[in-house]
């Protein structure tokens, strides 16, 4: 947004603010919902679900300032019932490694927000998956900062191209759920700057209009009051000129601290702002300049977007075009992890009788039922999708609790598909620790009890899968699921995440080969949970290490079960002819990718950069580019990926700046983060 | 007394179910759309069906699923059974067509959920049957409620699976009936199975698997069973000579006829012919014998009041 027009809007906003009373300025700075109303809908005690209409804040119609009208996400637009397009969760979209598609999804979401009369989409959730047990992992794109930044920026651009403000959340260090209201996060400066903040900055650089602060604390103060994060880093260093809002209800807890910390809007009710803020200014506890600054940010941003806003069309909500995007996303994100003896795709001529086992097959597996729940017109369950794709094959479903019966079914079938994993009871938003405050009776929260499947599911797979040589496990879940106990029992494995309203359709198409899978894991799958960073889910303080995820395993020389970026196809791709070059600003890597198999397929080509000569501790290699391509059988294509050299810098804590090292870098291109899947070359970058 | 008078058939159509107490003699292999719940009140009963024959004893509960090929035979003991037949339409809950539910309820084989007390379902079935026997219009909704209670209990407590059939899928049950018809019509030829295979374009192995899957018998066992069935009919209801019976049933030789017959029925053909059997067969219901209502009411009342 740092354009001349925005400067104009700032000037205009200043003029408006000059003519406002203190009360009017403060009025702009808070949400207009009543606590009881929001509380009741969160707890599903009222007829309306959470955010059924856009939640307003501010608005001074007599001064030509529209209210901010908040619509939550990120799985689609939370408003309405039986209407919105329910996209796959962000984690699946992350697995597509398709930023272009994410931008289109952003455009569709933008149109639906407008269709509801909203003007802000608060679904650019880019909290880094520090530990896969995070209850709301499904709302983010994965464990890798660069990848998060690219996907978040794409969604931001898409949403904002329709004149809808994108709100990036939760700023920052919010990757623990159960303790989110009390935990104080600490980490080294390098960890802060190299691991946890770059993706936020990328979204700001891509023009994000708004940022939502998180509930947790960072190095003492709550993030909603945190003047280091809000004033120093976001507004000053990054030149962010939009507005900041708090996470809902408990995101600010002190009038003076929040206002002085740079918090522009208290959402979604008025408690610490409003009259209390007016008084605090009158008493000299909060300088009026802080209020003026917030008011200017709010007015200029809203007015800028009012100008760009396209007309809202309720017909666009859940339109066939948008649903087609949800389907495309599910097709691209589902990740084939194992395919022994080419069990998949299933052959409709040979697999006449298919048995589907597991309760989740017949469930609407779109994910959490917390604030990210989207309410579409219909949801295709995995079972419905399989039946649809099975053609004239016979499909039998059994939920799987009686193993003897499963055995009978599996032995008489040509193929067995297990659908196993999680639902909103196993992971998701955790509203309060008090049992009577929990919404929908769901448990949700972090996966405190471990990252495996349920014991019955593991037993089912271990006992039944070996009885049929065509056995496939389909995993449902928002993040990494441990596989060690059963993976050797099964011939093929698909990670389906929470695949959205058309997820079942995409699953059926992939199982029967109508669609060639192309998703890639946006997280590492270790062989042991102890390989992950240490974390205490119920705590008042937590330290985040510099290393996590695939970077941690690689640094420690631990081989994962599946590497970050890994995913199979029904065809084969070969990489050759790597060349690397540079100019002043960019690093370029180019290679030839050939489809050497017999099917058309898509491939997410990944670029990693290693630092063999660095003078400081660096990861062995980190993702710094990706591109999706599509190749017909026998076809080859030259693929070029570029990356700003500044993104290879490290943060020098002593001088408080990013530093670029002039030295040899190792550039890798290939199909996953495993060196076996990469071709590499060194280049001296200066 | 009901002031309304209407035909029983209409009553059945409206209700989509049928419930009665009977003594079962024999029935050859057949299938029907209705689910059939059998509760043995007295004696015992053999049911031939997938995956293996079942000997039901007093107190047992068996559900034969819709379109499942089966046959029944009495044993040495006389039996009294409660039969409840329910049309599959009453089980439908999905909007989609072509879904069928298969329940796995067979107490004789231990296929009964450990944590479920089946007496409640049995009492409901008895109550339903008692009410049904009154044939009174005022019971209409009560009967329906009781049937739905049974269906709901099946869904809640009994393991079941759902099978989705494509409309173009040839129906396995009709295939089984084709095979049975063929065997029935060609019983006297000793190479009936070879002829069946070439006629249907099946290998011996796939015929074996198909029959095992659907009626729980091998082709050889099936042919023997059907030959015995035919022989029993002829022994009981005709004065045909043993030679004629051996020949027309395709046993090949008198010695194998005696051996197989003794093996399957426990008695020799002559003993069987001499033994008394219920005479008043009701030709309209396959294998069900008329049963005295007063006796049925007594047995059912006992269970309900237990």
Overview of this protein structure:
The complex is a heterodimer of chains A (686) and B (306). Chain A has 686 residues and is α/β, with parallel strands linked by helices. Helices cover 27% and strands 21% of the residues of chain A. In chain A, the strands form 6 sheets. Chain A has a 6-stranded mixed sheet with strand order 1-2-3-4-6-8. In chain A, β3 (120-125), α6 (145-160) and β4 form a beta-alpha-beta unit. In chain A, α5 (99-115) packs parallel to α6 and α6 runs parallel beside α8 (198-205). The model of chain A has no long low-confidence stretch (mean pLDDT 95). Chain B has 306 residues and is α+β, with helices and mostly antiparallel strands. Residues 1-11 and 278-286 of chain B have low confidence and may be disordered. The interface between A and B is medium-sized, with 16 and 15 residues.
Number of domains of chain A: 3
CATH fold-type name of the largest domain in chain A: TIM Barrel
Oligomer: heterodimer
Kindly report the spatial arrangement of strands forming the biggest sheet of chain A.
Answer: 1-2-3-4-6-8
Q: Which class of secondary structure composition applies to the elements of chain B?
A: alpha+beta
**Into which percentage range does the β-strand content of chain A fall?**
15-25%
Q: How many separate domains of chain B? A: 2
N-to-C series of helices and strands of chain B: HEEEEEEEEEHHEHHHHHHHEH
Name of the CATH architecture of the largest domain in chain A: Alpha-Beta Barrel
The Rg value of chain A, from CA coordinates, equals: 25 Å
- Quick one: how many beta strands of chain B? 11
Give a count of the beta strands of chain A, DSSP E runs of length 2 or more. Answer: 24
